[in-house]
Amino acid sequence: QVQLVESGGGLVQPGGSLRLSCAASGFMFSTNVMYWYRQAPGKERMLVASISASGGETYYVDSVKGRFTISRDNQKNTLYLQMSSLKPEDTAVYYCKSGIPYWGQGTQVTVSS
Length: 113
Prior knowledge:
This protein is an all-beta fold. The termini are far apart.
């Protein structure tokens, strides 16, 4: 069956870095636009970044531009989100989503000193 499995979340100090991964299976990953969303407790789930099927086009919400990089490896059916210069306001559960759409279970990112 279709699966999207996020990993790489954890506790990091402000200014630190994390790399999130999303392993996809059960659907044609290479033809799907992919997305990273995040949701903090009590807040709406919001789009953070997206990437075209080929990886040639990307989008970032203004608050993460210059700090986050979305990428994909279509041979490995894996989506990535490289996060640097992390801020406390980046604390959230991060989810990957396909264009079909399918959702992953999320991975917790906590930015705190």
